[in-house]
Amino acid sequence: MNFSERFGSAQFVTASGKCVAPVFKSTVSLDEAPKQAFITVCGLGFFEMKINGKSITEDRLIPLNSHFHHYRNCFCYKYFGEQLNFRIYACRYEVTHLLKKGENELLCTVAPGWYFRYGKCKMCWKLEADGKDYFSDASTLWRSSGMTNYEITKGEEYDYNKAHGKWKQTKAVKAPKSNYCLSDCPNDKVIRTIQPKKITETDTTVLYDCGENITGTPVLTCTEKNKKIEVQFAEKLGEDGAFAEACTYGQHLSFITDGEERDYRIQFTWATFRYFQVSKGAELKTVEVIHTDMPLTCTFESDNAVLNGLFDIYVRTQLDNMHAGIPSDCPHLERRGYTGDGQLTCETVMLMFKSKEFYKKWMEDISDCQDRKSGHVQYTAPYLQSGGGPGGWGCAIVEVPYVYYKMFGDIKPAEKYFDQMLHYFDYLEAHSKKNFVVSDQPLQWCLGDWCTPNTGKHGGRPDMADDYVNNYFYIKSINRVVELAKLIGREEVIPALKKTKQKRIQAIEKKYFDKATGNYCEDKNSANAFALDLGLGDERTLKNLAEKFEKTGCFDCGIFGTDLVVKILFENGYEELATKLLTSEKHPSFGYMLKTGATTIWEDWLNPRSMCHPMFGAVLRYLFYYLLGIRQTENSAGAKEFLLDPKNGKTVQRLSGKITTAGGEIAVKIDWENKKLTAEIPKNITVFYHGEKLNAGTNELKL
Hints:
By secondary structure, the chain is an alpha+beta fold. The protein folds into four domains: 168 residues, Galactose-binding domain-like (Jelly Rolls); 103 residues, Jelly Rolls, CATH 2.60.120.260; 330 residues, Glycosyltransferase (Alpha/alpha barrel), CATH 1.50.10.10; 62 residues, no CATH class. Helices cover 26% and strands 28% of the residues. Strand 33 and strand 34 form a beta hairpin. The termini are far apart.
């Protein structure tokens, strides 16, 4: 919808003067308390609205992040002339219980949020009460909220003495040209609270430990007037065990009190932290853990401490990275919806969390941020200038709708974006030489894999060739599109795609396959796993990969290679080795992270800049697919038919877990030592074990 279709005659209003985060005030007079009332609100960037002093929702960090509208100096417009789509989300809530007969006061505070690149904070609303509509207009007043400084990746600063100024007249502004949508994706909420442990106290500060790396805010009180309180946040302490500013990434909250009884907290962004330091003078009430309301729909437990720990830290890492409708790379430094990280982890998230509506929204972001002219898919969705590659990042336009179909049985998104998938292939062809994808936009990154441990520093570029990896993703995406084409009646594209695929495979074989050894790219950073996943190579290719890991016992790969290595080993009879890698405590490994006290997954194997990146956690789905043995049959979609086929990892003898699907809950308990397998099967799902269909209910089986 355009603006008028969504909001009628409402007007966007903004502060008439300079202000970081204005409060807008409107009044609505009602003849009677309404029997039913709804309000539709859009605040650009994040807003909080109160009616008669009470919040209209418990949602935080609203509206959803998106590529809002055109703005000057947008990098991809300015330098490449790209043409993207736009989308602005509005929030709709029932507010019957908040309205009364007579005058009703509407207060809406708006902070920059993700809108900081686009322009000044602005707000509009439409109130529907018993069949009559009321709208925001130029009669709206504004004043400062007291916020004096704001950066979405850093924090907030307040002087609450400045929150009591005179009300001033707002300025009505033209509504941005965009597609105005109602939010149907789960929003952020206060999910739980923590009472942290006090570690140290000095004459000026108190240091707290939450015991885990979380996203959210402490809640503080202070009744003293004109007291300046400063809070700093860190994922880790310094080498000497003391609070170190170098570990804060600049995250902070500061406020000057006004003497009123109130809670002091971060309101329009979040901090990522395990530790936080508060200057003396404030009392700590609690710590609020804030992220998207996306419940966990699975369980996993075993007799191996590393696997149990890996499950726990992945769940926490992923939830820390779910905010305002995007799956981010990290929740502090960049906070962006990187398409590479997001497509890599999407299947794991869809398996383990209630995430269908979340990914439905993110697919819209990916679609909106594809260049309509060239077919280029951005490194982030929503778009912000970032780094990535044409294969592992751009393929999200194919991978996420494909996985969405396989996991939820909904083909509509794949059908909707099908022509955009083909347009993405046009872009890859335009950036190819000798049947290899060799470039991206001019002077932009053209990564293959990322964060390999070979360099010993952050963001290690792999030794494995980038064009080899980018061709892998092109071929894999062609396979996905061919499968989808058969399902949606687009078979006419298949012959040309198959020819393209064959040329790309031949190019890989000619340039990178060593006939003398059976390796691809000398198996640098586990390059063999990429070929094996495409069905390439011979018996030596797999053997060489396995023998290397038998010797090293730890990973040598980046974000994509790690996922593929575990998958390939489990699929080809090396389940003991795959489990050994997952449970290893050698450096680099997940077990090493845990041994050093990690409560979230690191960005890098060796020298993590961030200690909260979910991308390496994509492997968690293999705990369910292979160790528990719960996986869909090849031709199933939407959790209709499963194969129960647990693999014996030897180092893990007792394990149990469950997944929740649209058809019900599948639960498995395994005891390899006593060769017992118990499976709970719902009525609406077909499950086979050794070729036999299992009964609904409890099945006691022999391994």
